[in-house]
């Protein structure tokens, strides 16, 4: 009987130790908590369709630890978006180099064409001169001059074809570059939407005792629009895209318009109140001029 009890006790101890050893491993293998404000199964761009007013209400009941999960998730979205922007900007840079190379080839082909045309004209003149004075030249001189003229003409035609092909390649790359620039503008607009929603999370996180410093540092580093003044077409597309963007120039225009409208409303209100005060003061008897001027 004693042996059975000892055996059962030993088995219980072994099971307890096994549970203790396996629990941390299971905890490590467990997936991290999923964010509540982002559906990662959606394609890029869909997450930002959640209205900011709705997001403010969604994060209100969350704890500080839960808000950290949400902030990390939105930070991940922002990082992915910045990566997409960088890749598109790299494609624009490469397109610029390819356009420059194509234009250089076109210029070289044009120079080669003009040189070949000049040689062809010289050989044609030489052939005519030989034909007019056959006694002064060898018997095969006219034919040789004509062959050289024909060869130079063919070389000029080939150079012209190279020039046309190089120009077409430059135009195709320029069109491809424009598409990439438009894509960059769209991606930047989407980045602004992500930052807006991340800031909602961070504001709530700070209100509940969390630290948003690291998040703000990253947001500041990857935000903003850099204009390459050395690339006129890219600068124009960037500026135009920002001006007409709902998250860029249009937002600033609305904010400035609202600010000016507020100033105008207060100015009207001040005039109305001022007139009312003046009338009230005039109706008051026994008030001094100094007090009247002070109130008005």
Topology diagram in text:
Blueprint lengths: L1 H28 L22 H8 L4 H69 L8 H67 L5 H10 L9 H13 L4 H35 L5 H7 L1
Helix pairs in contact: 2-4, 3-4, 4-6
Walk me through the structure.
By secondary structure, the chain is an all-alpha fold. The chain folds into 3 domains: 1-28; 31-247, Substrate Binding Domain Of Dnak, Chain:A, Domain 2 (Up-down Bundle); 248-296. Helix content is 80%, strand content 0%. The protein contains 8 helices and no strands. α2 (52-59) crosses α4 and α3 runs antiparallel to α4 (141-207).
Q: Would you tell me which CATH topology of the largest domain applies?
A: Substrate Binding Domain Of Dnak, Chain:A, Domain 2
What is the CATH architecture annotation of the largest domain? Answer: Up-down Bundle
Count the strands?
0
How large is the radius of gyration? Answer: 39 Å
Can you tell me the number of structural domains? 3
- The top level CATH class name of the largest domain: Mainly Alpha
- Main sheet attributes: strand count, strand direction, barrel closure: none
Task: Identify the overall geometry.
Answer: elongated
Straight-line N-to-C gap: 106 Å
**SS-derived structural category:** mainly alpha
User: Residue ranges: pLDDT <50 for 5 or more in a row?
Assistant: 20-27
Mean pLDDT: 76
- Helical residues, percent: over 70%
């Amino acid at each position: 009987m004693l042996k059975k009890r000892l055996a059962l006790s030993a088995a219980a101890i072994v099971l307890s130790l096994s549970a203790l050893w396996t629990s941390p491993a299971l905890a490590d293998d467990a997936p991290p908590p999923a964010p509540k404000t982002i559906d990662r199964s959606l394609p890029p761009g869909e997450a930002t369709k959640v209205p900011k007013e709705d997001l403010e209400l969604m994060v209100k009941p969350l704890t500080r630890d839960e808000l950290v999960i949400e902030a990390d998730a939105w930070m991940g979205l922002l990082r992915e978006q910045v990566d997409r922007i960088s890749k598109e900007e790299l494609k624009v840079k490469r397109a610029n180099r390819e356009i420059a190379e194509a234009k250089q080839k076109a210029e070289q082909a044009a120079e080669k064409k003009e040189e070949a045309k000049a040689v062809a004209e010289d050989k044609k003149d030489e052939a005519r001169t030989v034909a007019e004075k056959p006694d002064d030249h060898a018997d095969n001189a006219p034919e040789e001059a004509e062959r050289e003229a024909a060869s130079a003409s063919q070389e000029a035609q080939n150079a012209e074809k190279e020039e046309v092909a190089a120009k077409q390649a430059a135009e195709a790359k320029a069109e491809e570059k424009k598409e990439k620039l438009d894509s960059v503008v769209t991606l930047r607009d989407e980045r602004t939407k992500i930052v807006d929603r991340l800031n909602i999370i961070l504001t709530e996180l700070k209100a509940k005792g969390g630290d948003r410093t690291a998040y703000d540092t990253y947001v500041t580093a990857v935000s903003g629009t850099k204009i390459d003044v050395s690339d006129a077409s890219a600068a124009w597309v960037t500026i135009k895209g920002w001006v007409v963007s709902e998250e860029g120039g249009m937002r600033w225009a609305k904010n400035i318009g609202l600010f000016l409208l507020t100033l105008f409303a207060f100015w009207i209100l001040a005039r109305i109140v001022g007139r009312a005060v003046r009338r009230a003061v005039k109706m008051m008897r026994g008030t001094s001029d100094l007090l009247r001027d002070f109130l008005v």
